[in-house]
Amino acid sequence: MGNESSTNSRESRGREARASSLNASSRPPNQLSTASVPPPGAYSVPGSQRRQAQFYVTVPAGIRPGQEFPVIANGQQLMVRCPPGIRPGERIVVSAPRNSQGTQAYMATVPHGVRSGEQFPVLVNNQQLMVTCPPGVRPGMQVRIMVPTSRRGTSLSTPQEMDPSSSSSGSENARVNSHMRSPFGNQMFEVNVPQGVRSGQAFALIANGQRVMVTCPANARPGQKIRFQLPIKLSSDEIQSIKLNYQKDGWIRCLSTDLTFHWIRSEGEVDGQLKDSRDLTWAFERIAFVRELRSSATVSSKSKVDHSLQLVPAKEASLSTVVPAINNGTSLAQELSRYAAMPFQHKEAWFRQQIAKIQVPWEDGHIKINVRRENLLQDSMEATESITQGDMRKIFRFEFISEPGVDAGGVAREWFQLVSALLFNPDFALWSYSSINQMCMQINPSSGVANDEHLRYFHFTGRLLGKALFDRQIVAGHLVRPLYKHILGWPVTVADLEQLDADTYANLCKLKDLEDVEVCCLDFTVTEDHWGTAQTIELKSDGANCMVTNRNVDEYIQLQMRYRLLERVKEQIKALLVGFYDVIPEALLSVFDFQELELLLCGLPEIDIEDWKRNTEYTGDYERKGASNKVVKWFWEVVVDEFDEEHKARLLQFVTGTSGVPAQGFCALQGNDNNIRKFTINSIPEAVSVFPKAHTCFNRIDLPLYESKKKLTKFLTMAIQMEATGFDID
């Protein structure tokens, strides 16, 4: 097998695969004709010593096979020829000369007003560096700075050189006589050595509002610029002012002095008009829980980790802001707060920068996965499950056994698509359709009955989704909203029950309208159908003998939420989350909301606008003129001319509950009753609501009779960005 060696496997199948590969190498040459084909499995390939590094590159629009296009790799521009069969937007792998040992290249734009020889600040890896503008460089031009790095891209503090052509800033590094360390990292300062100060001598100065002692470095002379770092200090009030405001569902994350984010309910996010008219319902929807995943080493083995999962009240949940492998383990709270408020494209760009810091370089080895097409799902699960957690961040290469070809990105893309399609197929019994949308999948509570290894498959599912996000791949399966929230650690509410069990959700909502709930004759039990067998499950101790009354109806609703949102599929969700976090640090996900996570995993849909228009129905005041109605014309003009692909996808999420479009097109949109429910635009008076309302059960948007296109654009854009399911749900 050359220099390939099998990774450790937790199952006998992996051990057999390893034994087969070892036996093949010991056979005589004339017996290798069949053994030369590697068995299915995952193989760890040692890194090479070549001074070449490999990068993923996206082919730009308008580039055809054979044409060359420029890319920046390792801080230098290279010309890359597009391979045969590759289309714009697809990713390819290119090799480029590696950087000088221990440095990382960054590009910086010279600010307005800065002249050659003057210095300007640059933020690199959460640390401020002072850069000297090289000769001949004007404001607006880009320069390349080389920053010393440790093995996994953890940056040190001083830029070694910068370009256009490698000019050094010429400053020496000074030592500050302080032993303080800030969880928010350090800030870089520069100062001229005072007259009369010699090398090794300390002198005092005021920096960042504090008096510090700085030791003059060796070879530094009076008048020469030296650099030093100071810990970033934040007061308790400054720390608590750091927030992640998603403008969704009325929940925001606030930083505590223990450097963890906590959820709080922001009533100001709720539109006052809606709040006044729905006091009872809003109180009902304020009940929220967040899943809490805890890890602990087992008593019998320190290398084995046990995980526990439960729902806790949203305000008790916390999220660490430290990722040990990034920025020397300093808190990411300030970066998370800044990027969470930015547009989706900026969030994704920041996320990709952080992923690059924790990806294992090609020269440190990669993973090769061999699978058979005829046994694709099982081979893929066994191979992926045999990989250690530390290797999940290595570059993967895929090969379909007995099929020649080099994985330059196309084979990996095919593998993710095929495996995810098989995995989410309801016939495999791990997943079932959402109760209101057959484009979305929920966990099958009876998955263990159909598959004894269902928990291994859910752990594999988590790793597959995490690796797809890590490698910028797309999967062929949309999840129900509560699962995206569990992955992100977001609050789940009563409204999230609708996608799991629409009947239970509707019945719980009706309880709030009853004067006396005892007329329903309910007790604290639920009845589950497990493959034709009815099972009664108590929601609390002796629940069968406890009737639901006006006094305990809130407890009943909360227990229903706990059971349906987590308890009945707790082990499956736990396995999925653990697998996902084997690849992606949870803290990095906190800049995204659940809609954006779906777009990252499933990609932006290819929307045929004409097909969308043809299969749209109109009701209310829009029915008579249909697409010729003035407001409807404005609606389509905004969608076509002013919405980019992301906003079109968000509009679909708003109205249908998912960004996915059926393979047959918009004519195949289904409602919660599994019947065809076409995209519908219904009119409502603007006095009823200035915002559009969504009814995801029926794929319907209630569009106010706006007086101007400008008003329609404003409130439609706000609605699709602020709420996943609109301001009202039938």
Provide a descriptive summary of the structure in words.
The structure is a single chain. By secondary structure, the chain is an alpha+beta fold. It has 20 helices and 35 strands. It has a 4-stranded mixed sheet with strand order 1-2-24-25. Strands 18-19-20-23 form a 4-stranded antiparallel sheet. Strands 32-33-35-34 form a 4-stranded mixed sheet. α11 (454-470) runs parallel beside α15 and α12 (481-488) packs across α16 (594-602). The chain is globular, with a radius of gyration of 29 Å. It starts with a strand and ends in an 8-residue tail after the last helix.
Side-by-side strand order of the widest sheet:
1-2-24-25
Low-confidence stretches: 1-35, 150-170, 269-282, 724-730
Reported for the largest beta sheet, the result is: 4 strands, mixed
Radius of gyration: 29 Å
Fraction in beta strands: 15-25%
Q: Tell me, what's the shape?
A: globular
Distance between the termini: 60 Å
Please, what is the average pLDDT? Answer: 80
Class from secondary-structure proportions = alpha+beta
Helix coverage percent: 25-40%
Task: List how many beta strands DSSP finds.
Answer: 35
What is the number of helical segments per DSSP (H or I, 4+ residues)? 20
Please outline what is shown here.
This protein is α+β, with helices and mostly antiparallel strands and 730 residues long. The strands form twelve sheets. It has a four-stranded mixed β-sheet with strand order 1-2-24-25.
